[in-house]
Amino acid sequence: MNTLPSLRQQHARVTTAYLRAERHILEHEIRPRISREIIDEHRRCPVGKHSDALERVLIYLRKHHLEMDGKYILVCTQPHVEWRIAQITGEPDQAPRLLDDTFSDRFQAEHALFMKRLRDNGLLDTIEVTQ
Q: Rounded CA gap, 131 and 120, in Å?
């Protein structure tokens, strides 16, 4: 007689399927969109209306992919004066870890965050990047 998988086994299967789909999206939908033009578009306009290609990349990069620990966020440490990139700890009662980079312009901070996410996902490997 067949038995149903345990809830833990079911959760593991769902997680595996989700992560496999996310890897497929990264390799077949996101990576082909990464270009010098997309990076330049984001540098010119990091906040606001974007092309369809850039918007798709941003949505993918902002997702948590089942993991909050280490996710990058932007923190305004001094209103209208200073922004910093931080990483979420994954613990609800702990503040994000501030990274060393400090920015006096929100748009520069947004672009630096975008570049960090691209780099961490291995999406800059084939593109010559100038900051």
A: 16
